[in-house]
Every structure is written in structure tokens, then in C-alpha cells.
Known about the structure:
Residues 139-306 form the Methyltransferase FkbM domain. This protein has helices at residues 4-8, 16-41, 43-54, 102-108, 117-127, 146-152, 165-177, 214-218, 257-262, 265-268, 284-289, 294-303, and strands at residues 76-78, 87-89, 94-95, 99-100, 136-140, 157-161, 184-187, 190-191, 196-203, 226-234, 246-251, 277-281, 308-312, 315-319. It is α/β, with parallel strands linked by helices.
Amino acid sequence: MANAWKRDKSTPFITSRNLLLLFPISFLLIFFFYFTKSSNSNPNLTNQISLRSLFPINSIQPFDCLKCPQSHPVIANLVEGVRYPFLYSLADLGSLPDKPHKNIVRMLKGKPFRRPDISVTIQDVLEKMRSKSNGYVVDVGANVGMATFAAAAMGFRVLAFEPVFENLQRICDGVFFNRVGDRVTLFEAAASDRLGNITFHKLVGRLDNSAVSATGAKLAFKSNEEIELQVPSIPLDHVIPESEQVLLLKIDVQGWEYHVLKGASKLLSRKVGEAPYLIYEEDERLLQASNSSSKEIRSFLNSIGYHHCTMHGTDAHCTK
């Protein structure tokens, strides 16, 4: 009876065994709390996590604006005359100070940026698809995002392909300015019909006219200095899962359109009602510089069911 109090005494909570059990549980709780807090406070991170599962490919990963060096100077403004307004940032500032970009002059006069024709076109086409807002818009040759942000401003999700780093920086500016980090996914690549690397020709001071073809790049601006660089190339069929709906495919790649279309054969071969509305630049001079032609493109499109094409300036609009 002298030692009875030892038997009746409750077992102490802090024991070596309990500590061993509590340690992993505490670690898991801390990890869960931190991860949840980080994801909720950073929509871009949440978007990247979902995209990795949505696009499970090893050949290319989405471009990370959060890790991209900030471009400078940043000259951005609202675009005039579009139904769904957005901002974009200039990549080509002109020959300062003698010949600044026309939009810089407009901004100094208190005017918004001149509306890009492609932005108006994109919004006009997508206006008829508002009921299908879960589908994707694919912007190949995104430049500084004038088509990308026109679609994102309407609530559509966009996959944008752009190989020129300086343009990617400006698109990242627009992602921040327009608060569309959860809707825009960038790929630092040239869409093509082959997976690998491709020689790309960049014009100094005219980033909007860079192209795969050296002739195509310098066709309109022969006096500009040309720089060769290697950029990743990837077929769209390697990026876009068959399970994902694509509403609109826009291609403006200075004559490389045929190769982009060939790399999207599976996407474009979808049946009527599931195949995307197609907009591509059909400039015969640029196409010939890349060893293709409008006739070759039309023949290919006919073979996969795109029998209805109309011209809007130098852009072809095609449907099944």
C-alpha cells in the first residue's frame, strides 16, 4: 500500500514515445498551413500548380513571370476603343528621342494607345462564344500580348507562345497590370511542326517583326540589324491535351504559319463543333520566304475539314 499512489497516478503526457509521435504530426500540420497560406496568397503559384497537372509534358514548362527579370523602362497604357479594355506594355519604343513610338506620343498627349486591329478582331469573334468561357484561346506569335489580353479581359483562359525574351517581359508586365495571372499561361517557344530547337532571327528595334525566316524578318525593315538565336520549338499537339477545349487559334508568325498548322494537326482535326475557330496571317511574300504558300496551307486545311475561309485584310478566318 505504500506505493499505491504510483499506480493510481496518471501517465505523464510528455514521454519519449509521445514526443516521437507528435514530431511528424506537428511537421505535417506546419507544412500544410504554410503551403495553404502560400497558395492562397499567390494566385500565380496556384495557377502554375494546376497547369503542371493540366499540361503534363516534359519538353516545356510554362514561363514563370515571377522569376523573370523586370523589364525597364515600362511604358504601358490603356487601349482605346475595345469593348473589353485592357493595358499592354510597349516592346518597341522607337528611335528615341527623334522618332519615338507613336503610342508614346499619344500618351504624352493624354490619349490611350491606338487599338490594335487584332484585339478588336479577337473580341468580336469571342463575343459569340461567351457561353463557352471554359475553353482556351491559343495565341501563337503573341508578341506583347495584344491578342492575349483582349481575350483574357473577357474572362477567357489563354495559352500564349512567344520566343522573343523581350516580348515575354512585356507580356509579364501586362499580366500584372491586367490582373490576369490566373488566366494567361506563357510558353517561351516557337510553335512549329517539330520538337527541338530552331534558328530564329530577331531584328534590333523591331521585335514585332522577328521571324524564323531571315528574309521574312527583314522584309519590311531591311535597315535593321538582325541577330540569330536558338529558341525552343514545339508542336501545339505536344502541349494541348485532347481533353481540353480550344475555342480560338490565332497564328501570326511572319510566314511560319504552315509549320505551326502542321504541328497542330490533331487539334485542327477535331470534329465540327470541337475544332477551333482559326485566324492566321496569309501574306504570300512572308510564306514564300519560309518555303510555303497560301495554296499549300489551304490544301492542308481542306484535308482536315476546314472548307470555309474568308480573308480579312491579310488574315484568313477559317471554320469547319
